[in-house]
Amino acid sequence: MINLILFGPPGSGKGTQAKSIAEKYDLIHISTGDLFRYEIGNNTPLGQKAQEFMDKGELVPDSVTVGMLENKMNMHPDSKGFIFDGFPRTTAQAEAFQEILDKKEFTISHLVSLDVEENELVKRLLERGKTSGRSDDADESVIRNRISVYHEQTSPVYNYYDKDGVAKTINGIGTIDEIFSRLCAVIDS
Ligand code: AMP
Question: Please, which of 46, 85, 117, 139 could form a disulfide with 18 given CB 3.0 to 4.6 Å?
């Protein structure tokens, strides 16, 4: 079984790469951002709650996020593994996630972080906002807030996995194919 965490700031290319990696290695792709957008699209109570935070570029509370993630994993009891995209995003999420993994006797094979500098992130997200229909991509101040939330609350998650020796950083600048090859090299190592 392979369980991967694709890590990095908003706009670093996690979603694009996670889809290709899921296909190549036959993994279930779980993007907590996509799950929230699905709930918002269906106007569920969970979606309404998440939207308040997403519109400001802030994180949805851990308890809501972890519960949703666990439900999604439980829907795929026979999977060959998972790729987690945008989760965990706080150390508390990483700790709660560890309990879920322990219960299932799963381990994280690799956490791979995509390294992209801030001005490039803002440029990519504003560009994506022209077609994504995502309100959190349309406003530069919301984008900058998402990046600062990443630095303050999410980047410590890297250290949580680094101490287990499973965290690696790769260059997130290049063509989609180049970055995909770098990721595969880590996964196959
Ligand atoms: P993303 O699609 O990964 O860029 O996520 C979009 C938004 O969804 C984030 O800015 C957060 O508001 C929310 N979100 C996604 N994943 C998480 C998470 N693991 N924890 C808290 N909030 C999240």
Answer: 85
Q: What secondary structure does DSSP assign to 139-174, as a single string? A: -HHHHHHHHHHIIIIITHHHHHHHTTT-EEEEE--S
What is the token pair recorded at 10?
Answer: 């908003």
- Mean pLDDT by groups of 10 residues along the chain of 189 residues: 98 97 98 97 97 97 97 97 98 98 97 97 95 91 97 98 94 98 97
Taking the whole predicted model, whether its pTM rises above 0.85 is answered as yes
Domains of the chain: 2-188 (3.40.50.300)
Residues with CB under 6 A from ligand 1: 10, 32-33, 36, 53-54, 57-60, 65, 86-87, 89, 93, 136, 146
Task: Compute, in angstroms, the gap from residue 85 CA to the centroid of ligand 1.
Answer: 10
Report the atom number in ligand 1 closest to the C-alpha of 36. Answer: 8
Q: Tell me how crowded residue 22 is: count the other CB atoms within 10 A of its CB.
A: 19
Of 58, 12, 5, 14, nearest to 34 by C-alpha is 14
Instruction: Give the residue, by CA position, lying nearest to ligand 1 atom 5.
Output: 33
- Please say if 14 is a catalytic residue: yes
